[in-house]
Amino acid sequence: MVREGLRAVLEREPGITVVGEAGDGMAAVELAIRLAPDVVVMDIAMSTLNGIEATREMQRTCPDCKVVALSTYADKRYVQRMLEAGARGYVVKASAGQELLRAVQAVARGEGYLSSDITTSVIENTLSRGAWAAPALADREREVLQLLTEGKASKQVATLLNLSVRTVEAHRRNIMKKLDLHDLASLTKYAIREGITACDC
Prior knowledge:
single chain, alpha/beta, Arc Repressor Mutant, subunit A, globular
């Protein structure tokens, strides 16, 4: 329903054509590679591969696709990680509609765009950079962590990411060691807090 509403808003605007929709992060990356859109509107809270990791993967596989993040979250952690992943714009869902149109048009022109709701967060982060940085996880470790905290078993994670079960278990051990967290409940709380997963479980 949300995608249908956003599509209707975008398609009413002259010069904008919606060429595809995806329901999860992996599908979004695959569609971007196949369709090569000028701009991708990317939700952060998606299953399988969250919007942050999907954006990072798009920057690697189709760098000409410019990403506008769309999120319910104005928290500076989400903003920072999405911009670091390569997003050129960030719009809070509560301000979607005309503001999303402005963001898409600005990013298509090669400009950046930040929702007014998050400008303060970005300024605060710039002034206190590093004060709240999370431990550095590798891209693959973040992908594994998201899937594990969404309830996927190691075998399922291995299948989704084209890895061996042994490799997934090694990533899990490395994640726990880096974060000094030793059970799934603690990992899940961390993943939610840091914007790696939106699975509130």
